[in-house]
Write a structure and sequence with these properties.
This is DUF4190 domain-containing protein. It comes from Blautia parvula. The chain is an all-alpha fold and 191 residues long. Helix content is 52%, strand content 0%.
Length: 191
């Protein structure tokens, strides 16, 4: 009887005649390897570019585009590697998000570091959460108070009692004409 572990049988193939040669078994078909999605990789790059561009115009939109760019970059990864344009899109999206977050943190810390800034943020959030309590005139006066508080050279808000019209509002100039401003006294030193 032939031993299947015999060296001669292994060279010639088990149970075959020596004239037939070795037995070659077919390899099983290879598994399908996911190569990634070039469409999502291109979308990631596009979203990264839009994130950086919209950062100048409308920063919250940059956060949206940056988040989508990172998401599309993650989806585009294949089994072994991520396409190059997906890597670039994820880098641009991450940079856009980081820059906008730094800008928001800077302005938030600047606003909250002063009493006036904290008051403004508190009133603004109250207007946003309870809009039914405010009229358009109230909101206009709120913005007028904070935006034009320090516009005169004295540093304080505008006082009507110091106007040449004796505490009355300036007369309507009838359109786009400039308002009357009195000339400075001779004793004032303007450089």
């Amino acid at each position: 009887m032939n031993n299947p572990y015999d060296e001669n049988n292994q060279q010639m193939g088990y149970g075959q005649e020596p004239s037939q040669g070795p037995v070659i078994y077919p390899e099983p078909p290879a598994e399908h390897i996911y190569q990634g999605s070039p469409g999502f990789a291109s979308a990631s790059l596009s979203m990264g570019i839009l994130s950086l561009v919209s950062m100048c115009c409308f920063p919250p939109l940059a956060l949206l585009f940056g988040g989508l760019g990172i998401l599309f970059g993650v989806i585009s990864k294949g089994t072994y590697a991520r396409p190059g344009n997906a890597k670039a899109g994820m880098a641009l999206s991450s940079a856009g998000i980081a820059i906008v977050a730094a800008i928001i943190l800077f302005f938030a810390s600047t606003m909250l570091s002063t009493v006036e800034g904290r008051t403004f943020v508190s009133q603004y959030l109250h207007i946003l959460t309870h809009p039914e309590q405010y009229t358009e005139d109230d909101i206009y006066n709120f913005l007028q108070d904070y935006l034009y508080r320090n516009t005169n050279p004295g540093g304080g808000s505008y006082d009507n009692s110091t106007s040449p019209y004796g505490g009355e509002d300036l007369p309507d100039s009838g359109g786009d004409q400039d308002h009357y401003y009195p000339a400075p006294d001779e004793g004032d030193n303007f450089i």
